[in-house]
Each structure stands twice: as structure tokens, then as C-alpha cells.
Recover the amino acids of this structure.
């Protein structure tokens, strides 16, 4: 009877340790993404871009449009890196496309809340990310060359 309790206690303690691990900062995530294996980069770069979408939303809400524009620029930059890594590795194409689609939807929502003079950079990012999605979809479903 004691062995199952001990095993249960060990499992509980290890799960607490996993939850206690703090989330990486953006700078740590960027560093890790740059030095990770190619097949891991799409996920890491999309996570960076996703965090920057969230940061842009918060910055625009706080009345900091310049910082929000910089965050939106980062979204484009890291989405491009995610697309490139997914295309080069041939892995995580679908996951990357889904993540980019969600970011496009969120950026469109953000744009609707902004004054007209702040909307252009967000719309440019949306347009660019739609191209990224198209490229990913073409990579997934485009014609394959016969060898």
C-alpha cells in the first residue's frame, strides 16, 4: 500500500516542479531560437511573434503607438523567420500557418481599435502575414515536381 502512495507523491512533486518553472523572457526566447535546431525554430519564432502581437495590443491600449508599431514590426520579422525555418526544414508548416492565421486575425482586431493615423503599419503587417500564409500553404499543397 505504501508503494502506490510514494509513486503518487513523486508524480505530484514532479508535476509541481514543471509548473513552477518560470516562463522564458522574450530576450531568452530569441536567444534560444537563434541557437536551436532548424526543426525547432518555427515553433520558437512563432511564439516570439505571438508574444509581440500581445505586446503590441497592450502598447496600443496604453497609448504608446510608436512602441506598438515596433512590436508589430517584430511580428512580421519573426513570422518571416518562422516561415523560412519551416520551409527549410519541411517541418511545422501547418502549425506555422495556423499560428500566422491567428496572428492576422488578432492584428485585424487591434487595427479596428486604433485611430486612423495608426492603422497603416498594422494593415501592412496583416498584408505581409497573408503573403506568408500563402507561401506556407503553397509549400504544403502546391504542385510537387516529378523527379
Amino acid at each position: 500500500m505504501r508503494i502506490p502512495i510514494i509513486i503518487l507523491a513523486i508524480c505530484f512533486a514532479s508535476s509541481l516542479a514543471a509548473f513552477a518553472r518560470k516562463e522564458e523572457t522574450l530576450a531568452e526566447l530569441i536567444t534560444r531560437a537563434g541557437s536551436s535546431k532548424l526543426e525547432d525554430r518555427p515553433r520558437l519564432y512563432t511564439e516570439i511573434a505571438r508574444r509581440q502581437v500581445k505586446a503590441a495590443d497592450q502598447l496600443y491600449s496604453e497609448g504608446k503607438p510608436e512602441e506598438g508599431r515596433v512590436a508589430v514590426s517584430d511580428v512580421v520579422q519573426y513570422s518571416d523567420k518562422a516561415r523560412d525555418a519551416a520551409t527549410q526544414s519541411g517541418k511545422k508548416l501547418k502549425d506555422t500557418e495556423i499560428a500566422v492565421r491567428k496572428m492576422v486575425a488578432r492584428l485585424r482586431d487591434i487595427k479596428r481599435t486604433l485611430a486612423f493615423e495608426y492603422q497603416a503599419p498594422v494593415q501592412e503587417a496583416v498584408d505581409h502575414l497573408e503573403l506568408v500564409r500563402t507561401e506556407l500553404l503553397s509549400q504544403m499543397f502546391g504542385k510537387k515536381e516529378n523527379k
In short: The chain has six helices and no strands. The mean pLDDT is 89.
